[in-house]
Amino acid sequence: MSLLTVRYLIDFAYLLAIVLFILALRWLSSPATARRGVLAGEIGAAVAVLATLANPQIVAYKWILVALLIGAIVGMPLGLVPMTAVPQRTALSHAFGALSAALIGISEYYVREPHITKFGMAEISLEVIIGGLSFTGSLIAAGKLQEVLPQRPITYRGQNFVSLSVLGLAVILALILILHPGDAYLFPFVVVVSLLFGVLLVTPIGGADMPTVISLLNSYVGLSAALLGFVLNNKVLIVAGALDGSSGFILSVIMCRAMNRSFTNVMFGAFGQVQSSAAAVEQGRTVRSATPEDAAAILSAASSVIVAPGYGMAVAQAQHKVRELFDILTKRGVDVKFAIHPVAGRMPGHMNVLLAEADIPYDKLLDMDAANPEFPHADVALVIGANDVTNPAARTDAGSPIYGMPILDVDKARTVMVIKRSLSPGFAGIDNPLYYLDKTLMLFGDAKTFVGDIVRELAGGSSA
Amino acid sequence: MPSHFISSVYVFVLAGFIGFEVIKHVSRLLHTPLMALTNALDAVVVVAAIIIAGRAQTPLSTILGLVAVAASFSNMVGGFLITDRMLRMFKLSRQKKP
Q1: Is residue B25 part of a domain?
Q2: For chain A, what is the mean pLDDT?
Q3: pLDDT at A265
Q4: What DSSP character marks residue B92?
Q5: pTM confidence score
Q6: Domains, chain A, ordered by start
Q7: How far apart are CA A309 and CA A447, in angstroms?
Q8: How far is CA A137 from CA A275, A418, B49, in A?
Q9: Residue B61 located in a structural domain
Q10: Given an 8 Å threshold on Cβ–Cβ distance, is B81 in contact with A64?
């Protein structure tokens, strides 16, 4: 086979991989076909990797095989993390993706330099800046999600000015390099400054905003891969990067809409600080609290129940107890459904995965748009570990920081029950008037224990 | 401007459109698996890393290339693995009963 034939065959293999990648995403349109999608993606990736190994440019195989082996050894445990750890695993894999894109760009620069065109330099600079900032930004996000870094936004005066100046510096250095590609000593500074910008960009963002940040970083990582495809004239990278980038972008838009915020507000608004004034509970309002026995009696008398879970449910590891409650109520003929707010959990779709892991069938999981028309017909709305996404102040109180945010209309159900440790405000530090409604019963306690007690009460009641 | 730049722009724009259209239709239930899967697909940068490392042009480019091979391949392996693990958990009510 001539070299040209080999090159055509490799290009054809890449095209096959691209088609399989698109099919993979296409089949994610339904849980019924989704696993087929993973298989298509796997075959596409395998085709691309094997075709690449046949590339005649490659002269040294030994270390590549070692590196692939190391990658597999690192990747396996990262594919086996518990479902609660998926957000930080995702952030870490964004970091790895950005790292490899940045490293390839850096390496390509030093291979071409000093015979590098202005155009090539512009492509490489942009690629390395985006790859670099996504790498450190994703590491910080992973650290916050893993709680090795503080969840609270870390802010100081003039922060946005400093961050944007650092980005400006990276751009200026890159521009000098584009005009004078010979000034190779400047290139490491471009790299370092973009790494620094990634840290400055994500550090001030609070834990509550992580679903948006993780989606935005996803988009950046895709963009850096696509740019790398431009640098290397590799179409499979351009397509995979464009798919990844558009996916991250769509998810960021969904997350922003779900919180009624703009990109700039998320990135530069330092949301999530506890505002002491908002946290101060007004005097004179009373709450009604109830015992597990009361809750069990109300639930067993109901004909339809909608559960509104939040991340607090996962923190308390209560999802398996919730499934027991689901089973026992369903067996008694109660219609139990789950209402999932888009930002319930720490990344897009996280709550669905946590509930699916607990063996709750996915046809019982309703997204916000499907759930809200159902609340007025529900006998009981049971809120577990969710706070801000059920706060009616978002609808009515124009002074509230979350005013305008779409919420789950739990307050429209006949009775509302809220499992919560105390009356303390949630992540965003905003008081929730839901708790003071006449129809609301507060179930104070740990979510796992409390749900377990309700289940025991229901089970005991049926055997007696 | 290299001659392949325009064709690259074509590919990027069209792939972006396909991405938007396809991902718009991804089930809302599956946004976490979607992100895990696109991560795994994006890890196809491993092919560029393999070429950079395998050309063995300078020690620096080889070492950077090898680190990139390991980093992106770990994403590929881990990404597909966790996506499949998540998707296996999604069951319908009627599938649940043994």
Answers
A1: yes
A2: 89
A3: 76
A4: -
A5: 0.91
A6: 60-268 (no CATH), 280-463 (3.40.50.1220)
A7: 11
A8: 26, 36, 22
A9: yes
A10: no
- ipTM of predicted complex: 0.95
HEC string of A203-262 equals CCCCHHHHHHHHHHHHHHHHHHHHHHHHHHCCHHHHHHHHHHHHHHHHHHHHHHHHCCCC
Q: Do B23 and A34 touch (CB under 8 A)?
A: no
Per-residue confidence (pLDDT) for residue B17, from 0 to 100: 96
Of the residues A209, A244, A388, A453, which is catalytic? A388
Q: Would you write out chain B's pLDDT as a tens digit for each of its 98 residues?
A: 778 899 999 999 999 999 999 999 999 999 999 999 999 999 999 999 999 999 988 999 999 999 999 999 999 999 999 999 999 999 998 765 54
Closest CB to A90 among B35, B46, B92: B35
Containing structural domain, residue B54: 4-92
What's the first-to-final CA gap in chain B, in angstroms? Answer: 63
Provide the pLDDT for residue A461. 60
Asked if residue B64 is part of any domain, the answer here is yes
B contact residues 52-91, partner A, Cβ 8 Å cutoff: 52-58, 60-62, 64-91
Tell which wins on pLDDT, A396 or A282: A396
Please tell me the predicted confidence (pLDDT) of residue A429. Answer: 62
**Cβ–Cβ gap A25/B58 under 8 Å:** no
Contact B48, A237 (CB under 8 A): yes
B97 lies in some domain = no
Residues 6+ apart with CB under 8 A from A269: A261
pLDDT digit string, tens, across residues A398-419: 888 888 899 999 999 999 999 9
**pLDDT score for A426:** 57
Instruction: Give me the number of domains chain B comprises.
Output: 1
**Residue B53 DSSP one-character state:** H
- Residue A196 pLDDT > 50: yes
